[in-house]
Amino acid sequence: MPGSDLQERGERSDEQVSGAKVIAQALKEQDVRYLFGVVGIPVTEIAVAAQELGLRYIGMRNEQAACYAASTIGYLTGRPGVCLVVSGPGLIHALGGMANANMNCWYKECCLPPPVSMADTSAVCQAASVIRSARQPLLIVGKGAAYARAEESIRKLVEQCKLPFLPTPMGKGVVPDNHPNCVGAARSRALQHADVIVLFGARLNWILHFGLPPRYQPDVKFIQVDICAEELGNNVKPAVTLLGDINAVTKQLLEQLTKPLWQYPPESKWWKTLREKMKSNEALSQELASKKSLPMNYYTVFYHVQEQLPQDCFVVSEGANTMDIGRTVLQNYLPRHRLDAGTFGTMGVGLGFAIAAALVAKDRNPGQRVICVEGDSAFGFSGMEVETICRYNLPIVILVVNNNGIYQGFDADTWKEMLEFQDATVRAPPMCLLPNSHYEQVMTAFGGKGYFVQTPEELQKSLKQALADTTKPCLINILIEPQSTRKAQDFHWLTRSNM
Amino acid sequence: MPGSDLQERGERSDEQVSGAKVIAQALKEQDVRYLFGVVGIPVTEIAVAAQELGLRYIGMRNEQAACYAASTIGYLTGRPGVCLVVSGPGLIHALGGMANANMNCWYKECCLPPPVSMADTSAVCQAASVIRSARQPLLIVGKGAAYARAEESIRKLVEQCKLPFLPTPMGKGVVPDNHPNCVGAARSRALQHADVIVLFGARLNWILHFGLPPRYQPDVKFIQVDICAEELGNNVKPAVTLLGDINAVTKQLLEQLTKPLWQYPPESKWWKTLREKMKSNEALSQELASKKSLPMNYYTVFYHVQEQLPQDCFVVSEGANTMDIGRTVLQNYLPRHRLDAGTFGTMGVGLGFAIAAALVAKDRNPGQRVICVEGDSAFGFSGMEVETICRYNLPIVILVVNNNGIYQGFDADTWKEMLEFQDATVRAPPMCLLPNSHYEQVMTAFGGKGYFVQTPEELQKSLKQALADTTKPCLINILIEPQSTRKAQDFHWLTRSNM
Amino acid sequence: MPGSDLQERGERSDEQVSGAKVIAQALKEQDVRYLFGVVGIPVTEIAVAAQELGLRYIGMRNEQAACYAASTIGYLTGRPGVCLVVSGPGLIHALGGMANANMNCWYKECCLPPPVSMADTSAVCQAASVIRSARQPLLIVGKGAAYARAEESIRKLVEQCKLPFLPTPMGKGVVPDNHPNCVGAARSRALQHADVIVLFGARLNWILHFGLPPRYQPDVKFIQVDICAEELGNNVKPAVTLLGDINAVTKQLLEQLTKPLWQYPPESKWWKTLREKMKSNEALSQELASKKSLPMNYYTVFYHVQEQLPQDCFVVSEGANTMDIGRTVLQNYLPRHRLDAGTFGTMGVGLGFAIAAALVAKDRNPGQRVICVEGDSAFGFSGMEVETICRYNLPIVILVVNNNGIYQGFDADTWKEMLEFQDATVRAPPMCLLPNSHYEQVMTAFGGKGYFVQTPEELQKSLKQALADTTKPCLINILIEPQSTRKAQDFHWLTRSNM
Amino acid sequence: MPGSDLQERGERSDEQVSGAKVIAQALKEQDVRYLFGVVGIPVTEIAVAAQELGLRYIGMRNEQAACYAASTIGYLTGRPGVCLVVSGPGLIHALGGMANANMNCWYKECCLPPPVSMADTSAVCQAASVIRSARQPLLIVGKGAAYARAEESIRKLVEQCKLPFLPTPMGKGVVPDNHPNCVGAARSRALQHADVIVLFGARLNWILHFGLPPRYQPDVKFIQVDICAEELGNNVKPAVTLLGDINAVTKQLLEQLTKPLWQYPPESKWWKTLREKMKSNEALSQELASKKSLPMNYYTVFYHVQEQLPQDCFVVSEGANTMDIGRTVLQNYLPRHRLDAGTFGTMGVGLGFAIAAALVAKDRNPGQRVICVEGDSAFGFSGMEVETICRYNLPIVILVVNNNGIYQGFDADTWKEMLEFQDATVRAPPMCLLPNSHYEQVMTAFGGKGYFVQTPEELQKSLKQALADTTKPCLINILIEPQSTRKAQDFHWLTRSNM
């Protein structure tokens, strides 16, 4: 490391100190409250100076995670988070976080309370008229609506007009997931048959299948509500675009649709179809969840987690099936309380996000918890941040949903059998991780609580204890069926001849 | 695109498969033997195809470490290593590795056995004449000499001409550290008083204090031997530059200096000065090493490690004091058997380097071990790769030299006392990590062996066991004095008023 | 050039042809009407295919100018212009144009008719209230207002509320320069003493002295009307920000200020001060313009040009004094009819801009002219485009205001004297160009008309002829005082001893 | 920032002046002799300061050309040339030059006299043995040989070993083109049938058809002599690679082949084949050159130019056919006296190169001329630099070989006929330029001499006058057959229906 000589390390030059103070003071004036980073010769002084001014400095274990944490702060608090890194390798390690933040459209609007713009009045009229004439309408509530703090106005719109709505992954909670008008449990059906869809800060990217058939009607009419002109008209030709602050525009729309009040008939065929589909889907999930076979499947796990999930907790999630299936089962009741790997699908963000959310929770509402639902592979990207969690004693419960691999893995017996004649460096399939790893020991290593869980009963019990004990972070390592959710298939790894 | 839909994941299109085979075949033709990475939708097939052709695929836990591993392979084997990442976040995570490799000048020469160039004959004569007239000569053996496999010729030069030499961090082992002509133990003295210095693939960067006074004589004559013209004449104006393959040029020089044989008088005042300085420095280290107070200091730890260090092991190291002090005590006897954080000072490289070295060791010489000496902060950057080490059962012994912080930390009592009235998020100094963390449990979590060590006796015993048991990886967590090597200073953290 | 072999040139592969057709078709569908470029192996086919679909391809002489031309089309027509370049050097030559377009905020909004957003109603009320309470109000009309086609609403606001306004360089003509409320002739005074300034798409960059004292009152209240949130609050802390489409927001403001009607008193002291300052400034200009000494000064030249300037012409301009002084004298009566070097101050843009404007003029309004006012140095950057102008017979009159240099030059006698004893490569001052260059011959070389003009009478006559003859492009080379507008100073070039 | 305020321009701050002096002094210490640029606010002072120290500043008309000029100086003089540009647009305009210099491998080696490296002795032996066993050997002399100033050693090798050689475009003149061993006139044959090819600083890029069949024997043995390891083994697998300074390596090779002397039999079948092919090709050229039909063809033009070309002149060239055909007819007798558009094929480099060459010529050898052979399209990229040439009165003769287009154009009658019913903006083919343009007037506009030439007699006469009159620059505009060298083809432009 440049500057590694002991003598040099010992000397804190006056210039560095005063420069650090100037920077810290500037951050304070911008109302920055949290800094994340890994200190090194030239930035330690800045961290110290920031602390002296009352800002929080959270020392992380890798700049990657530090940057993911910092980027979350803006979304949660409306004020910028700062990532403090040394030049050279530190900066490069942080690039992942910066790219991720950018893809999720965080950053730049934080610096001043942004002015509010409204949509063109005539376009609002036109949108209202399209909605009124819809036979199978659908609202989609996206991350942009959460970011714009539009929860009140959107909820009013949903309730007064009696419209079905669907949240995107990070739009969950803007209107509570258990709201009777939420049709998340009939997502595919709703998307596929809607004739008018209003997008509130939701982007037609891969998560929403780009807005294209066969996942949508070819002649579906999209109404886009967004703050960002460049997003309008991407992939599809919208019927109406409403450019402006999402909260302000929703209010405009609400006014148009409620004076005089227009309501979508709650006994329409469309509502009936959606309710039936939800019922049958929920029954299917319920059936999967109640399977008694061991190891557990994803649905069993998430069913039990949902049962005990505190209503006000933050839910952070990353992984493949873990994130996808978890999102359908775990409910959010508050806006901006779900954080997941997002548009960019970046693995390694979870613990950084959870740390940021826990800091915010701790300051706002002592007792509030962060539940961090990780796939086992995802956890590996930044698992060492568990030490950070323990050091700062953050109110985080990590669930590692462990299938021994990426997408899928092997059970311990198959693994052992596979290695009987040859070495893992020759023979281990690329998606396999070590079976039955004790990730919970990564938590106990730093004084937190850890559980190794193989049955529904153990899961219930460990969750109960973890949520009851507010003095320590906790990790519950949940073993599930390694080939879970995949159809039976030929087991080609063991049968390939020339390996 | 992150392909989160289950259906999409299930479909392995024919195009992907055949494209993957083409890539794998091309890698094989380039004589690539090892791939490192984290699989994801589009690259899993490549990993599988590579395995089918007999290449090794090593699945890592974060692209950062994967890239550090891949970059090491070129240095160790002369053949390129490959890092397999998904586009987007995977690529960005890998940037650190690529930047590091570049700063260390690895990569590009690997693709074909490079042609050999020699130095201009007249310049060689001139260099020989400068050496012959030197009163206080010094050879510096750098990483470039290791890379050029110049060990035989440089050793001959040292021995036949009876010249003192000094290795750079990664030049260690080109000539064994215990060679009587090695003046590593009098490094500062040797640099400061030499009148002629011959650099063999060593760069005058911060590690060598840029070649400038007061660390050097103002009129010191540098002779630079290097393959890279752009490196010649940086920072200093060399007396002679020898551009060419370092091995070939050393042979040219050797011929000039040995026909007829010229020898530097072994009883010169210069040799006497150096020998005396080495003796006094070694006595000082010895004194530090033999201190009985607990917690141990760095010298005590490395003294005991050196006692048991196998002569043929790879030594990988990263950290601040851990790397710097460790380098002076731990000896290398073979070229290209020391890997450290290098020119760029990147933290997080250690486990990736160790994994690569272990693969090479395993294939070449079963029984050979990799000793990975990590500072506790450094370990945190990629500690989850311990699972990788266990999964592939790699012959690695990790030593975490644990001072509870970055540069320095607190002991457990001080830490506790500090938090009595306020929270760690408010009060913890930026360089502190959690005291007495059980890093060894990160190893036991995955089935490896772990030791928590606080005394010289425990250290000796655990090292003995770790080196004797070749069936499992091992981590020895060595607690040292948290304020080790730092002068006593006011304890301003606890006394600052307004925090 | 890659692919320069005759055989290869002769072969137009089928793939290239069909690829070219696909690209041309896509451009047509985006409603692209004009392409500019320099053809080469891979792009000739695209140009041909575009022509076959009825698009215009204008072959330029350097990619630099082609890109400047293309970037103008978006501003003038609201549809994207396209620049067609070969890869490698062609692309690099075009970078200047791309950077310039970006600095001027052209490009990206062109692709779809953008949705319109309005300002927050409460912010509009607040802005109206600030304006109503202003004692010395000022409107500044910027390029953004021109781009947003807000001419009608801004004119109404100016007239109904009787407010003074000031155009920025490219805001000229949104409201005609000869409007009685235009206070351009008292620019410095107006900026310096206004207490409330409303910016309509005008940015507080160097052209507006960053909005800072001493050019402004320290407590001036800025109201910013802009489409771009990132521009709001730069350099100054605005009193109110109105984010939205500038035309829509102006209408909102107009409604607030006219129902009931509020008017700024036309007999206020502020109006009196401004009118007096305008009168005295105009008298000063008039005095300078009427000077009879030869060579002419800038004011004399522009005074005569203004006398004959057609009201509907485009005015394009670049240079230093030429652009700055010309802008104050030459009047614009129509929006989007002035193009100059803009925010970035790029030299070399003039002829490209003029060519684009001429194409638009020719299609919209045969008989409309483009007057391109160039400094002599500025003309040199892309003077060869005169061939392009002649080839397409574009209705352009170029005025080269020629002071034999950059900022200033020498007269012919001084030049000759200076070279009596030494060569120009040794002695010529960096800002001097060849005296009395016959730039008009660059026009006659390609069949256009050229005039070499040294007196007011010659200038009047040549302008009259140039504007009367609509069959040919024309260049009037106007010699002015080489040291014009500069105070007398020591003539150090001739007196320096050791050159 | 473009500093358009008059006041600001007037003030030369003391800091700027002293900073400028420091820069100028540093340039002088690096032995920089020539600066090229376009001045503006912050760099004028540097130009002035440089002049005061005796450096030459050449003010150009566009940064593009300035950068092309600066990059040439390194190649011609071995000392760096400097391009002085303002930040922002100036820098961007200069990028073309920088990219071009990089592709041609100029720049960086200039800063210090580079150390010389030699090839591995055993590789030299091996190369000599391959050459000795060759049945159809060929030497290719590239720009790298010129750059390395290897003319003497390569000429000795050619003559003592009696080997046939072929120069690349910028390798022309290392050994004179009229040397009896030069087989340039049988280029295709020589490449296609050689069994051993030695490349001296010549790269197997598109100019040499990448070294691949069918332009080469599939089993041809390449011996590569180059300073740059990365270039070795590109595209082909060479039989031997000799890495080192090209001049030093050629001497090593020469020693191997001449002690004892080995000679390739001058009466071999290979020599006979080559001589016959040269004779027949030269007859063909001669026949084309002697055609009496008007307009002239390329061969007629170059034949007459070659007749009068001074042996010591620099030849600069750019264009498509103009450069390709001109290169085969115009002879070079001195190394580093031909400059053309090079590897990158950049158009617009010619006048910048010519200006740089003229400065060098003027200083070294008064009376020496630069002949700049330009296609008409190529001339348009930087034609305004003619003013620069006239201002500094540089000894340049520009020949514009004018075919009214890019690759090809129309004659005046066809052009007129084409425009009878429709406008050029609709109808002009992309590759056509204005027919019969009087480019020579671009020269007379600035006081140089100009000729408009349509017949061989006019060409002869104008060349004679131009070369005799050393007091003024000159431009000869040579009209040639617009469809020259292209087979008859359907004239689809006039017959396309819907245009």
TrEMBL record, chains A, B, C, D:
Its EC number is 4.1.2.63. Residues 126-253 form the Thiamine pyrophosphate enzyme central domain. One of its GO terms (biological process) is fatty acid alpha-oxidation. GO terms for cellular component: peroxisome. One of its GO terms (molecular function) is magnesium ion binding. It catalyses: a 2-hydroxy-3-methyl fatty acyl-CoA = a 2-methyl-branched fatty aldehyde + formyl-CoA; an (R)-2-hydroxy-long-chain-fatty acyl-CoA = a long-chain fatty aldehyde + formyl-CoA; 2-hydroxyoctadecanoyl-CoA = heptadecanal + formyl-CoA. Its cofactor is thiamine diphosphate. Residues 322-478 form the Thiamine pyrophosphate enzyme TPP-binding domain. Keywords: Lyase, Magnesium, Metal-binding, Thiamine pyrophosphate. Belongs to the TPP enzyme family. This is 2-hydroxyacyl-CoA lyase. It comes from Oryctolagus cuniculus (Rabbit). The gene is HACL1.
